Amino acid sequence: MGLLLTLLGIVALGAVALTSVVSVIFSGTMLVVAGILEFVHAFRIRKTGPFWTYLLGSLFSIVVGAMLVARPGVGLVTVTLLLAGYFFASGLFRGITSIADRYKGWGWDLAYGIVSVMLGAIIFSQFPFSTLWTLGLVVGVEILSRGISIMAGALAVRGVLRQQVHA
Fold this sequence. Notes:
By secondary structure, the protein is mostly helical. The protein has one domain (2-166). It is built from 6 helices and no strands. Helix 1 (2-14) runs antiparallel to helix 6 (134-166), helix 2 runs antiparallel to helix 3 and helix 4 packs antiparallel against helix 5 (106-125). It is extended. It starts with a helix and ends with a helix.
C-alpha cells in the first residue's frame, strides 16, 4: 500500500494541473454524496432531532458540491485563494506566537511560520497561474508523504518483529 501511494504521489506531482482539477471534482462529488446521506438522515430523525439543521446542511453540501463538479475551474480558483490565505495567516500567526512565547523549540515554529508566509505570498503573487499547480502540488506531496510514512512504519514494525523472534 505504501509503495502504491508513493508511486501515485509521484504521478500526481508529475501532473499537478490534472491532479488539481481531479481533486476539485472529487471533492465536489464527495460533498454531493455526503449531502444526500445527510438529507436522508434529516428525515430519519425528523421527530427526535435537529431536522432543520441537517436538512439545510445537506442542501448546502449538495449545492456547493454540484457547483464544484459543474465548474471545477471556478472551484479551483476558490480553493487556491483559500489555501493562499490559510498559508499566509497560519504562518503569520505561528511566527508571531513563537517569537512572543519563546517556548522550547520556538525557532522551528518561527521557521515554519516564515516558510508558510512565503508560500502564501508566492501563491498570491502568481495568481491566477498558481491555480494550475497549488492544489495539485499540495495533494501530490500529501499522497507521496503518506506512502513514504506507511512504508517507514511497515519497516519499523518488521524490525521490531524480527527482534522479538530472535529474542
